[in-house]
Every structure is written in C-alpha cells, then in structure tokens.
Design brief:
This protein has 188 residues and is mainly α. Helices cover 58% and strands 2% of the residues. It has two domains: 64 residues, no CATH class; 110 residues, no CATH class. Strands 1-2 form a two-stranded antiparallel ribbon.
C-alpha cells in the first residue's frame, strides 16, 4: 500500500505517528490537529480539498487496529477469506459463499478506509461499533468454529477509540457545520 504524502506540519505528523504506534501515548491526535488548525499551522480547507490526505491520516491511525479486524472480520468481510476444510462440501460451500457475499454487501474491509458497503463511512463505523458492543459480530456460528475471534477487552477498547477518533475527524472535515459555529449578524 502506498500513502500519498500528507500535507501536515512535521510536529503534527510526528504526534499522529507516535499516537498510532505507541500504546502508551496519552495525547489525542484529533486535538493535535485542532491545535494546529487553531494556531494557523494547518488550513482546514487545505485538508478538505485533499481528501486523500485525510483518509491517509485515518489509515495511519487504522494500522494498529487492522490486525484485530483481520483476525475477527476479514473471512466474511474482505476478499482475503481463508476457507475452512468443510467449505469443499457442496451444501456447506453454497451456504458459506452466500453468507460471505451478503456480508461483503453490507461491509467490505478489503481496502483500507474508507470501507465500502451499505451506508456512509460514518454509518458503517457506527454499525461496526454497535455490532461488536452487542456481540452480534462475529456471528456466534463463526465464533464456535473460530475460537478467540470475539473482540473484547483491550482490543475492543483500541478499536472503539479508533472508530471514535475517525468519526470525529470525518464529522469535523466532511460533516455539516454546527449551528453554534456560524455567526449571526446583529440587527440594530
């Protein structure tokens, strides 16, 4: 995978890289971006115009949680399915293939962010979080045959932190403006 160069000040980019790879980092990459924007080091309009840079940033932050999704979700929600031995059985093969086809329609993690599927990027992130919170995904039938695929504990916390950060970035960069952020003209 090749990332396009991110047009961010070196200090901001360094903070984001540290945040993405250092589990002990206690800062908030999103707040670092906000500080850079507020300090005039970073133009929000520049980032919006360079959508690829925003997604490259999100994907940089995604790197530590991608293995969690690879382990628990990729068999059904990507094109890198590792089929079990029983997939060769005619009736079972049809059921598994239909399930995977339907799963990829709803959410396809084959390529890095933005994911494809039914819904906007924000809706997909909300759905991922909801399904994992409710322990609906991975499906129980899958978990019974693939022990250790339930996302819980620290993995769940890391994934949810990435989802929340990504949702905040997407909402800030591509969402509707806040009613509170628009200035109203005073009429005397």
């Amino acid at each position: 995978m090749v990332f396009k160069r991110i047009a961010l000040p070196a200090a901001v980019l360094t903070t984001l890289i540290v945040a993405a790879f250092d589990a002990n980092y206690s800062g908030n990459p999103y707040e670092e971006l906000q500080r850079a924007y507020a300090g005039g080091e970073l133009s929000l309009q520049q980032l919006v115009e360079k959508q690829d840079s925003v997604f490259a940033l999100i994907n940089l932050m995604y790197r530590p949680v991608r293995p969690i999704l690879r382990h628990s979700c990729f068999d059904c929600h990507s094109d890198s399915t590792e089929y079990p031995w029983y997939h060769k059985l005619p009736l079972i093969k049809g059921m598994i293939d239909d399930h995977i086809s339907e799963a990829r329609e709803h959410l396809d993690l084959t390529h890095d962010f933005p994911f494809s599927g039914k819904g906007s990027s924000l809706e997909l992130l909300e759905e991922i979080k909801h399904e994992i919170e409710e322990e609906k995904m991975p499906l129980l039938s899958y978990r019974l045959l693939h022990w250790g695929t339930l996302i819980e504990g620290g993995q769940r916390d890391s994934l949810f932190a990435w989802i929340d950060s990504t949702a905040a970035i997407l909402d800030d960069f591509f969402g509707e403006p806040d009613d509170n952020s628009t200035e109203t003209a005073d009429t005397d």
